[in-house]
Amino acid sequence: MNNIGHIMRTTLVALLLSACSEFQHHRETAFAPVVTRGYGTEYWLAELNRTRQMTSEELGKTVAAWQAELEIKPGDGNRIRLALLLTAGNMQVRDFARARQLLDELDEAPANTSDRELLAIMRQIIDEQASASESIHTLKRQLSRQNRRIEELEQQQRALTNIEQNIEQRDSLPAIKNGEE
Fold first, then answer.
1. By CB neighbour count within 10 A (0-12 exposed, 13-18 middle, 19+ buried), where does 78 fall?
2. What pLDDT digit, counting tens, does each position of 26-63 carry?
3. Which terminus of the chain has a smaller tally of CB atoms within 10 A, N or C?
4. How far lies 11's CA from each of 8, 14, 16, 17, in Å?
5. Per-residue pLDDT tens for 4-18?
6. How far apart are CA 128 and CA 36, in angstroms?
7. What residues contact 51, with CB distance under 8 A and at least 6 apart?
8. pLDDT confidence bin for 23, thresholds 50/70/90
9. CB of 146 within 8 A of CB of 116?
C-alpha cells in the first residue's frame, strides 16, 4: 500500500508539473504572448498555411472535416477558418460563393482589429473575384456574338464566291461556244 501511495504522489506531481509547463516566466516589462486556441487571425492563417503542402485528397478531406466541425460547433472561429480556406486556399478548394455565404452568416464583427481586417480582406478578394467573373462572362458573351458574326460573314463570303464562280462560268460558256478559248 505504501508503494502504491508513493506511485500516486509521483504521478500527481508529474501531472501538476506538466500542467504548469505552459506557463512561462516573463520580465516585468515584457508582454505575455497571447495564446489562441482555435480563434484569431494568427491561428486561422497558420491553419491555412498548413494546407499548402497537402495533396488533393488531403485537401478534400480537410474541407470536409472543417465543414463537419462547423456543423458540430457553428462558432464564428470555425466559420472564418473554413471561409479563409475557401477564399485563399489552393485553387482546387476555392469556392467564393460558399465563402461569401459563411462570412455573411457571422453573428457579429470580431472585437480584435486584426480579425476584422482579415475579414475585410477576404470580402475584398471575394468581391474582386465576383467582379472579375462578371467581366469574364461579359467578354465570353461578346466573343460568342463576334464568333457568330464571323461565321455569318464567312457564309456570306462563300455564297458570294459561289455566285461569282457561276457568273464566270456563265460568261465563259458563250466564249467557248464561239471558239474563243
1. buried
2. 444 444 344 445 578 999 999 999 999 999 999 999 99
3. N
4. 5, 5, 9, 10
5. 655 656 665 555 455
6. 31
7. 59, 62, 85, 89, 90, 93
8. very low
9. no
Which residue is listed with cell 458573351? 141
How far is residue 101's CA from residue 119's CA, in Å, rounded to a whole number?
13
Residue pair 118/44 in contact by the 8 Å Cβ criterion: yes
Cell of 6: 508513493
Which of 72, 118, 113 is CA-nearest to residue 99?
118
Distances (CA, A) of 131 to 5, 6, 28, 92, 135: 70, 70, 51, 20, 6
- Extents of the domains making up the chain: 35-138
